[in-house]
Amino acid sequence: MGRGTVIDAFGENHTLNGALNDAVAEIEMRLLLEAIYEAYHYDFRQYAVASLKRRLAQALIRFDCRTLSALQAKVLHDKAVFPQLLDYLTVQVSDLFRDPSYYLALRRNVMPTLATYPSLKVWVAGCSTGEEAYSMAILLAEEGLLNRTLIYATDINSESLRKAASGVYDLDRIRQFTLNHRESGGKGSLSDHYHASGHSAVMDPQLRNRITFADHSLATDTAFSEVHFISCRNVLIYFNRELQDRALGIFQEALVRRGFLGLGSKESLRFSAQAAAFEDYRPEEKIYRKAA
Q1: Domain that residue 104 falls in
Q2: Same domain, yes or no, for 114 and 29?
């Protein structure tokens, strides 16, 4: 199947013998998302439409389907298909200390306040394959706080969580990880926190032991613990406004009084129904604080 066929399926080119058009494609996508929700209890119905279209276009190629209806049939009748489709519907791109200035701001402006608590709970929401969770663990270790901290790292993709829990990354990624760590104000060497094994870098078990990886959906689940800091970066941009408000409401509920929230560089609380629940703290790095 050619790439042009996929474009046709989403109504961007009307050359597929008139079989598909915008209205049909929209109906097919709604039905596919409903089927996923009913069969597997994963809710993508309030994800941003443009993002879903891009990801489903790639999935049509991968599963050799001409239409979303054909993809729906595969998802419902072949249980092996959905875990693979989930990789297309969730974001799996990250690095250790991605956006180093964010971690530098945490180190300088948030960690001193967190250090005043006798014990800490941190939530990394949408942790993907674990890079951000291990970044937080390393940062806390370097600031002398890890031994009194529990980190909850959550995602909806069970395969991503499995990879995250292993703490194993390709060794060829370490050069970028090391550069990010240095620019984030890292203390000592990043190599203090992993060891090489063949072509892999294996994260220090002391980091892994402070992290609980768990399945959690911001679309369907609720707050599960009272935490002092939440980092949810580059997740909300894939939600529509209603789901963004729902997620931010969960964060507001989960945070302790005057707790901190970190978002991605392209995300904001502006215009959110939850905006009044937070104060700007380091807005240039999208770090907010729960209002008193």
Answers
A1: 100-290
A2: no
Provide φ and ψ at 164, rounded to 5°: -60, -45
Give 201-204 contacts, CB < 8 A, sequence gap 24+: 201/168, 201/169, 201/170, 201/171, 201/173, 201/174, 201/177, 202/167, 202/168, 203/134, 203/167, 203/168, 203/169
Token pair, residue 4, equals 């042009």
Tell me which of 89, 119, 149 is where a domain ends.
89
Average pLDDT by stretches of 10, the chain with 292 residues: 45 40 85 93 88 90 93 94 89 86 98 98 96 98 98 94 96 96 97 96 97 96 93 93 95 97 93 94 97 88
What CA–CA distance (Å, rounded) separates 114 from 236?
A: 25
The residues, ordered by sequence, that sit 6+ positions from 116 with a Cβ below 8 Å of its Cβ are none
Beta-carbon contacts of 53 under 8 Å, excluding residues fewer than 6 positions away, are 10, 29
The token pair at 80 is 């092996």
Q: What is the CATH number of the domain that holds 109?
A: 3.40.50.150
Query: Percent helix, strand, coil in the chain (nearest 5)?
Result: 50, 20, 35
Distance separating alpha carbons of residues 124 and 91, to the nearest angstrom: 15
Q: Which amino acid is at 252?
A: Q
Tokens 């989403």 sit at which residue?
10
Domain boundary among 89, 113, 147: 89
Residue with tokens 């009272």: 226
Exposure letters 153-189 (e unless 16+ CB within 10 A, then b)? bbbbbeebbebbbebbbeeeebeebbebbeebbbeee
